[in-house]
Specification:
This protein is α/β, with parallel strands linked by helices. The chain is about 30% helix and about 20% strand. It has four helices and five strands, in the order βαβαβαβαβ. The chain has a five-stranded parallel β-sheet with strand order 1-5-4-2-3. The chain is globular and about 30 Å long.
Amino acid sequence: MANLTQEEWKQQLVNDSNAVILDVRTDEEVAEGIIPNAIQIDIYKGQGFIYKLEELDKTKNYYVYCRSGARSGQACAIMNQLGFKNAYNLSGGILEWNEDLVTN
């Protein structure tokens, strides 16, 4: 797992053709806006979160974020334990995100 600054995260993401953006916030938080093309798996779902992670392609590079960077850091650690090689945490989370968000 690597903690990336906002700029590092965006730069690396732009150049990564094997990237998946993963939002680990709650449904209520996601309703306020989500980074375009992100998939959401709520980390608070406990074992359900683990089950959803297990369905993902472990060969992809995951760019993980939450509100402030704490839950996404935990998610990256869990992903590493499950065999994901590349999970990148967005330091500061969506609170520091200065790009556009989309709402569903």
